[in-house]
Amino acid sequence: MWRRVASVSHLTFAHNSTVNKNACTFKCWEAFTTEIPRKEKTTYQTAKTPFITFVLGGPGSGKGTQCMKIVENFGFTHLSAGDLLRREIASNSADGIMILNTIKEGKIVPSELTIKLIQKEMESSDNYKFLIDGFPRSEDNRKAFEQIFGAEPDNVLFFDCPEDEMVKRVLNRNQGRVDDNIDTIKKRLKVFTALNLPVVNYYLEKGKLYKINGVGTVDEIYKQVHPVFSTFNFENQFCSEVLC
Ligand SMILES: Nc1ncnc2c1ncn2[C@@H]1O[C@H](COP(=O)(O)OP(=O)(O)O)[C@@H](O)[C@H]1O
Ligand SMILES: Nc1ccn([C@H]2C[C@H](O)[C@@H](COP(=O)(O)OP(=O)(O)O)O2)c(=O)n1
Ligand SMILES: [Mg+2]
């Protein structure tokens, strides 16, 4: 089980991250069991720092589908930026109409708004492992995240899929989405090439990118994804001593 240790005035991300240490609030978590009396807890050694994976790829490349499998196997919390934005539209919030029109046009919603929704979910979660799916979709998204959270992701998945396959999948998706039509898809693919590929290249150069061949069955693709996480020891995902 996990217990919140403290809210800190900045994120306690990956130990090696180069971060703006005053940018954000977040929580540290510590393991506890009923067998260990509180006074014996070694907070500094048990607190967890968030583990963040960005999941990138064009529309229909299979991000959401593979995220579900990662959640099942590794206990991540899945935060789909698109789902959070659609929820905002459905809630009739003040920003809803603007978000709807932006999505219909295949464009990108202002970064601060999307980040606010992601941040809210993370802060109210008991988990420390997060898959952030469909984000960042632009260099502006990426830079704003870094500035607001004061950190970078631990790793980045990129589902590489040919356009004709993505179009086919999106047109067969059948989820009643306003952007799953041929006109919007064409716009989204242009936006993906122009705005998202620079983000992919950024993480490639940083050595954080795992490029996955997005063609094949769901299981074939997941076989490439699984080793990305199975080799990581999440037990060592501690907060730093200074922070907790
Ligand atoms: N490997 C695959 N082969 C065929 N169809 C797939 C595959 N992966 C996902 N799909 C289907 O394609 C559609 C888009 O997948 P989804 O996971 O929603 O992609 P994304 O989140 O990248 O847009 C869904 O209907 C999904 O069931
Ligand atoms: N970071 C993001 C993510 C999504 N959006 C908007 C624009 C996207 O076309 C829609 C849908 O995103 P979503 O990730 O659900 O789409 P796909 O799963 O890739 O088909 O939401 C955004 O503006 N900014
Ligand atoms: Mg998706």
Structure description:
The chain has 244 residues and is an alpha/beta fold. It has one domain (51-242): Rossmann fold (3-Layer(aba) Sandwich), CATH 3.40.50.300. It is 43% helix and 17% strand. The chain is built from 9 helices and 8 strands. 36% of the residues are buried. Mean pLDDT is 84; it is low at 1-46 and 240-244. Bound molecules: adenosine-5'-diphosphate (ADP), deoxycytidine diphosphate and magnesium ion.
Summarize the structure.
The chain is an alpha/beta fold. Helix content is about 45%, strand content about 15%.
pLDDT averaged residue by residue = 84
CATH topology: Rossmann fold
Q: Can you count the helices?
A: 9
Give the tally of β-strands: 8
The radius of gyration over CA amounts to 19 Å
Number of domains: 1
The biggest sheet, with number of strands, parallel, antiparallel or mixed sense and barrel status, is: 5 strands, parallel
Subunit structure: Monomer.
Enzyme class: transferase
Pfam families: ADK
Keywords: ATP-binding, Cytoplasm, Kinase, Nucleotide-binding, Nucleus, Pyrimidine biosynthesis, Transferase
List the main descriptive attributes of the protein structure presented here.
single chain, 244 residues, alpha/beta, Rossmann fold, 5-stranded parallel β-sheet, 3-stranded antiparallel β-sheet, 9 helices, globular, disordered N terminus, binds adenosine-5'-diphosphate, binds deoxycytidine diphosphate, binds magnesium ion
